[in-house]
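Document type: protein sequence-to-structure record

Subject area: structural biology

Format: plain text, a pair of labelled lines:
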Amino acid sequence: MRKLCRDILILSSLLMASLTLTHGITEAALIKDGVEGQPPIQIANAYKLNFTNQVKTGYQSVRYDPNRGAQLYDSSLGYGFVQETNALPAREVHTDSITSDGTGFFITESYFFAEPKSEKDNYNNYGMAFRMDASPGTYNVYVKTTSDAEDGIVSVSGMQTSRLLKSGHWDAAKLVPVKHTAVAKGKEWTYTYVNGRDHIDIEIEPNKVNTAVGIEEILLEPILPQHRAAGALPNLFILGDSTVKSYTFDEAPMSGWGQIIGSMFNQHKVRVTNYSMGGRSFKNAYTEGRLNDILLSGNIGDYVFIQFGHNDESADEFRRYGRGSTEAMYENYLKEIYLPAIQARGMIPVLVTPMSRIKGNASPEYIYENSFKSRKFVDILKRVADESGVTLIDLNSESLKYYNEIGVEAITALFMSIEAGETPGKTNDGSYAPSK
């Protein structure tokens, strides 16, 4: 039961003070309908791609060359098959074994990869991936495959489709429902996806060895971001990890700053929704569709507060669905996925540096220092915010100032230093605290 208990009232006050005093964003700013100082939102052309020999009016035909095989990605065309996806880390896929009989493009895999003891986090069934140039923005994605959904799975740009097919809730209290899911019916797959890169990958991966899967048709339809309805409140979305999460009653006294910050706004003027959950990082908040759901739920002029770093330090950065990131991957998530996708929706990102960890066995004279030393995520956040002109709240520095101001004894009392039986709350694994 030694998980950190966040002094949410004080740290939230620091957060709000930093936001209001340093950056001048106040409650009044949250009721604007537009986004001043940002370039106009552009909308790209639609893609209609046909992978069969049958002529389809309005579709671009992707032909199979018996001598050269499948069309590889060509920047002059703006599309083609690739040998690895744009996921972080990149996932290997195959091109030389793609075939066609005129009814679609097919691939069959004779073996799969799965890391022993981490089969659910790090596996690869290979398959094929088709890349299309697509500017940052929102797209309706329709994919028609050559086989039923039970034989394969279709993913968009490294997203975890098994999670996207499920409904449910994003938070522990089940107050924030999953609004946007993927749909698979027979051979047809549909998504609505907010893209931050300059391209989109459509991945077709078999579920079984020696079973052909393939692609017949892709429709990529751009859609404009939505303006707020008349009389609707502006939104402030919060996305982060366990230090930001809203905890349930039986998890008390654990709590995060996202749990209390809403009370610091006038609820008649702004709606605050906390999408944060324990164990999240830039990577898994993206792959499970958490970020995508926020962006599709918001309107032009809404705010998105983002804090990640604690779980991004996990040493599973090269697993397909791990939580960790190298410094380069962390920066890529910021610059190539999160910020351009948020801004393409006409929404306003606010980056929050993660609060520093404390030292549980600190001596009375200990001076707290930034705990992010092995991977300098805090420095990356500051630099990217400065380079991109995005508002940053330096909660990391503010937390250290506060720790050292009140000292080790007070900090120890503020964090989760409790004895067995002192609280009926849950432990980290979901069980309840023992009485002795």
The first strand starts at residue 47 and ends at 50.
